[in-house]
Amino acid sequence: MTTPAPGPASPLAQRPVALVDLLDRLLAGGVVVVGDLTLRIADVDLVRIDLRALISSVSENMPSPWEEP
Fold first, then answer.
1. How far is CA 64 from the centre of its chain?
2. More confident site: 67 or 36
3. Given CB 3.0 to 4.6 Å as the disulfide criterion, which of 10, 48, 53, 61 pairs with 33?
């Protein structure tokens, strides 16, 4: 037996989610943030900012790559 995917008519779509729960779910799997910002005047680029970040949770079970064994 299969369950239908949550859609607009599904009760799961209307279920409120706390911000803490949402952040916990996102950080458990990891989040990649990518963004580009360019400030330009009269078609002349003045400032360009590129952002690439990986945000993830830390587990006690995984050793740090910077610690001595």
1. 22
2. 36
3. 53
Question: Which residues lie closer than 8 Å to 39 by C-beta, 6 or more apart?
Answer: 45, 46, 47, 48
Cβ(33)–Cβ(49) below 8 Å: no
Those residues whose C-beta lies under 8 Å from the C-beta of residue 55, and which sit 6 or more positions away, are 27, 30, 31, 32, 33
* Phi, psi angle pair for 31, to nearest 5°: -130, 135
pLDDT digits (tens, 9 = 90+) for 20-34: 887 787 777 778 889
Q: How far apart are the first and last CA of the chain?
A: 49
Please, are residues 53 and 32 in contact by the beta-carbon 8 Å criterion?
Answer: yes
